[in-house]
TrEMBL record:
This is YlaH-like family protein. It comes from the Bacteria. The chain crosses the membrane at residues 6-24, 36-55, 61-82. InterPro entries: YlaH. It holds the Pfam family YlaH. Keywords: Membrane, Transmembrane, Transmembrane helix.
Amino acid sequence: MTDWLREHTLITYILIFVMVAYVYHKVFATRKLPLLKLLLVYAAMAFGCYILLIFQIFGLPIVLCIAVALLLMLMTGVRAYAEKRQNRNASSQSQK
């Protein structure tokens, strides 16, 4: 897989950028930014993703590491949803 990602650099860059943007929106975007600041954030993110692409090309597993981070975020979200639902069910049963 690493060889395929090394051969298809544009797809790898887009994949890195999309995953990093998703992590940014889920973790770091606490409020809506004005358009100019948002463009500045995305420009910095694009440059940072280019650096991550260079690391990926030279053999570091950047795409895999970001994918693991996304998996951990998914697991945390599912657990928070389950706990919220359990607390809601417990509170509705205690009121009866």
